[in-house]
Write a structure and sequence with these properties.
Radius of gyration: 23 Å
Number of helices: 1
Bound molecules: calcium ion
Order of helices and strands: HEEEEEEEEEEEEE
Helix content: 10-25%
Strand order of the largest sheet: 1-3-4-13-7-11-10
CATH class of the largest domain: Mainly Beta
Length: about 240
């Protein structure tokens, strides 16, 4: 009898060890597969009641005029050349109540336009509030976009800062690998776009910028709407 009971205990121990091992493996697999979205307000649903609450005031500029639904936490505007209005709007929505938008208000004195809505908080110069980067790391991004009226072309690029302070002189301008095409031709329907980029050894901060570049004809009034953003670290297991 003693021997049978001992064997039962041993059997139970074996089953318990196997169960624990299964739990550990399942946990590891799900941890590896679950990529965290680092975009804090991906659907542009968190909007402030006042233009002066919450959002870092030093990031708001006269050339990138803030719209009614500002602050829009997690987003930014980089009015490199020309003038625009940006923020959250309930006019065009992919999900929820709001989307983010950028409308071209005009070019600069030379007729040049380079206007960017950013995934990440920046004015295109100050990287202090941008995402903290992991060095030599691939990131994947995706978002939904539509244009109404649409600019002829939109680019997806990223800005890197080589220091934690994110000073303007520490910036680097880089291109992303947009899947399927080097550029976006916006349509009147919502469409999903995705791509990747890889940080350098000295990248400390970053944002992704969706850019309306210089175009030959007048762009005033051209608007892009952006929604449901995802930015994740591209782990080894997901690289194909
Ligand atoms: Ca939304």
């Amino acid at each position: 009898m003693m021997c049978v009971e001992y064997m039962k205990v041993q059997e139970m121990r074996k089953i318990w060890i196997v169960m624990c091992a299964v739990i550990v493996v399942v946990s590891l697999v799900s941890a590896a597969g679950a990529a965290t979205n680092i975009m804090p307000n991906p659907g542009a649903e968190e909007v402030g009641a006042s233009p002066y609450s919450g959002y870092p005031q030093e990031l708001l500029s006269l050339r990138g005029k803030a719209a009614e639904f500002i602050p829009i936490e997690g987003w930014g505007c980089y009015p490199s050349c020309g003038y625009c209005t940006w923020g959250a709007t309930d006019k065009e929505v992919h999900s929820g109540k709001y989307s983010a938008f950028l409308t071209v208000d005009g070019s600069d004195d030379r007729g040049v336009t380079d206007l960017n809505i950013c995934l990440g908080q920046t004015d295109g110069r100050n990287g202090k509030y941008a995402f903290t980067a992991k060095a030599n790391t691939a990131y994947r991004f995706s978002f939904w976009l539509k244009g109404d009226p649409a600019p002829a072309v939109v680019y997806v690029r990223w800005l890197a800062w080589k220091t934690e302070e994110g000073l303007p002189e520490d910036r680097e301008w880089r291109d992303t690998n947009l899947i399927g095409s080097k550029r976006i031709i916006p349509s009147a329907e919502w469409k999903k776009y995705e791509g990747t980029f890889t940080t350098a050894a000295d990248t400390k901060k970053f944002v992704v910028r969706i850019q309306i570049p210089l175009q030959a004809k007048s762009q005033k009034g051209q608007t892009i709407y952006i929604e449901d953003v995802e930015i994740t670290e591209l782990t080894e297991g997901r690289v194909k």
